[in-house]
């Protein structure tokens, strides 16, 4: 039996992570996860917040702290999602790679980000 709610996280601490970090809403989930704080150290790979085809809205983040990140950071809304992700604060230190917030062809508006702090960035924004 599938749970009809997505978990809410207050704090997430990730150290020396390599791979894919995603907050993905399944096909039948009514809403995505909500994160208060995420701390990522020495991350290499793909960080994505993706809303699936039938999800009504993407994830909402209050604070994200990223240190020594290398890879792809994306907040993507799928074709049928009504709105993109909303970020309050993003802190990025020594970032190298690709950072983008993309809404697909049918997305009504781009992502809303309150504040982005980028230190020592090298790559594509």
Word description of this protein:
- With about 120 residues, this protein is mainly β.
- The protein has one domain (about 10-25, about 35-125).
- Helix content is about 0%, strand content about 60%.
- The protein is built from no helices and 10 strands.
- The chain has strands at about 10-15, 20-25, 35-40, 45-50, 60-65, 70-75, 85-95, 95-105, 110-120, 120-125.
- A 5-stranded parallel sheet has the order 1-3-5-7-9, with no helix packed on it. The chain has a 5-stranded parallel sheet with strand order 2-4-6-8-10, with no helix packed on it.
- Mean pLDDT is about 55; it is low at about 1-5, about 25-30, about 50-55 and about 75-80.
Keywords:
single chain; 125 residues; mainly beta; 10 strands; 59% strand
Biggest sheet strand line-up = 1-3-5-7-9
Shape: globular
Cα gyration radius (Å): 14 Å
* Terminal Cα span: 41 Å
How many strands?
Answer: 10
Low-confidence stretches: 1-6, 25-30, 51-56, 77-82
